[in-house]
Design a protein that fits this description.
globular, about 20% helix, alpha+beta, 3-stranded antiparallel β-sheet, 7-stranded mixed β-sheet, 10 strands, about 180 residues, Nucleoside Triphosphate Pyrophosphohydrolase, 2 domains
Length: about 180
C-alpha cells in the first residue's frame, strides 16, 4: 500500500483528504482518499421485529432529501457489537434483544477506506424509549416488501443495499 499524506483536514466533525503517488502494472497516478472520523469505521443494523424490518427516515443534506435507510452510525468503542446496539438505541429507541454479525463491507474501495460492520439485530415487542432525535421517523416494513422498496428506489443508499444483500445471503428472516 502506498503512503498517503494528508493534504486537507476539517475541524470537527473530522474529515481529511489524503493523497499518494501510486503505481500499478506500469501505470502511475495520484490517488486521493477521504478519511472520515478517526477511521474506526461504522455499523449498520438489519433490525427485525416479528416479520418486519426497521428502517429510519433521515434527512441527508449531501443529497438534499430525506431517505429511508437501515439504522447506522459511526464506531466509537472497542466492540462493533456494542456500537451497533448503542446506535440502534440512539436512532430508534429500541434495545436489541440479540445481535449477530453478518460480515463487513468497505464503503468505497476507490475513495473512502471505511469499514462498515453489518449486524442482524432482533428487537422485542415493547414500546421504544426516547431516541436522540437524529432520525425523523422509524418505519417498520414487512420483510417481504423490501425487494419492492429496493426496486422502486425507495431504499437506495449503498450501505443499506449491501447490508440487505448480506442479510438475504445469510438466509434473510430465517438467517
Amino acid at each position: 500500500m502506498s503512503d498517503f499524506v494528508e493534504v486537507w483536514r476539517s475541524s470537527p466533525p473530522f474529515l481529511a483528504v489524503e493523497s499518494a503517488e501510486v503505481e500499478h502494472h506500469g501505470r502511475a497516478w495520484t490517488q486521493h482518499r477521504v478519511v472520515v472520523g478517526d477511521d474506526a469505521g461504522g455499523v449498520v443494523m438489519v433490525a427485525l421485529r416479528g416479520g418486519t424490518v426497521g428502517l429510519v427516515r433521515v434527512w441527508r443534506p449531501a443529497v438534499g432529501e430525506s431517505r429511508l435507510e437501515l439504522p447506522r452510525g459511526m464506531r466509537e468503542g472497542a466492540d462493533p457489537e456494542d456500537d451497533a446496539r448503542r446506535e440502534l438505541l440512539e436512532e430508534t429507541g429500541h434495545a436489541a434483544v440479540s445481535a449477530r454479525k453478518l460480515g463487513e463491507l468497505d464503503l468505497d474501495t476507490s475513495l473512502v477506506p471505511t469499514r462498515i460492520h453489518v449486524f442482524k439485530v432482533v428487537i422485542g415487542e415493547g414500546s421504544p424509549g426516547p431516541s436522540d432525535g437524529e432520525v425523523d421517523e422509524v418505519v417498520w416494513v414487512e420483510a417481504s416488501e423490501l425487494p419492492r422498496l429496493v426496486a422502486e428506489g425507495v431504499v437506495r443508499d449503498g450501505i443499506s443495499l449491501a447490508a440487505l444483500a448480506m442479510w438475504a445471503a445469510s438466509g434473510g428472516s430465517s438467517g
